[in-house]
Amino acid sequence: METKKYKLLVIDDEKDICKFVKRLFSKKGFLVYTAFSGNQAIKIASKIKPDIALLDIYLKMGLDGLQTLKRLRKISPQCHCLMVTWDKAEEKRKGAKKLGAVSYLTKPLTVTQLYQVVNRFIKNKRKGDE
Amino acid sequence: MPTIRELFHKIGNGHNKITVAAGLTKEILKQKTKEKDFKELKDTLIKKLSELERFTIETDSILNQLKDIIYGIIDPDTGKLKNKKGE
């Protein structure tokens, strides 16, 4: 997976997941930032303007996933937002799509699945740049 | 005291950690152990980690089935039993 330095923001209150994903994508040449709450994510996003965000819909503290998505899209409209949840509820998926999420991933996540969605983003981005 | 919803999410998050950690470990093994002597061991480890991922996904699927049954009987946020209409 050859990449230019895309900025990936991982938002999950499970710190281990942030750490694992950071390790995984840093090795692939991404600039990876992590946030453990929606509020923290908004602060970071305002500074870095991420290209991709991997956002857990179920955040315990402060803003929830959908509220975070809404604000994130305002700050960084070009951001490719990937929602992650354990919940298969269709309502939330629709809500997230309406707010601009491009993909909806169901936990438990696999590395193969993560690579696939990120590769799709890179391909689309390259097509757009051409 | 955590709610039933929180407990299910906690277990689901645990499964998520296992699958992501197993995948990450496989990636590290692929990159770090290039010596021929370790090839067999590395292949065994990668195979076992893939099994761990697969079994965790299956376990999570059972957890989801349990969740659907329990949420149908008990309100996951209040812990109160629902009536026959599911209210």
Please describe the structure with a list of short key phrases separated by commas or semicolons.
heterodimer; A: 130 residues; five-stranded parallel beta sheet; 5 helices; 5 strands; globular; B: 87 residues; mainly alpha; 0% strand
Most extensive chain-chain interface: A-B, 18 and 21 residues
Cα distance, first to last residue of chain B? 23 Å
Outline of chain B: rod-shaped
Number of domains of chain B: 1
Mean pLDDT rating of chain B: 91
Number of helices of chain A: 5
**Secondary-structure element order of chain A, N to C:** EHEHEHEHEH
Judged by helices, strands and strand pairing, the structural class of chain A is alpha/beta
Name the CATH architecture of chain A: 3-Layer(aba) Sandwich
What does this structure look like?
The complex is a heterodimer of chains A (130) and B (87). Helices cover 48% and strands 19% of the residues of chain A. With 130 residues, chain A is of the alpha/beta class. In chain A, helix 2 (38-48) packs parallel to helix 3 (65-75). The longest helix of chain A has 19 residues, at 111-129. Chain A is globular and about 35 Å long. Chain B is mostly helical and 87 residues long. Chain B has one domain. Chain B contains two helices and no strands. The longest helix of chain B has 35 residues, at 39-73. Chains A and B meet through helix 1 and helix 5 of A and helix 1 and helix 2 of B.
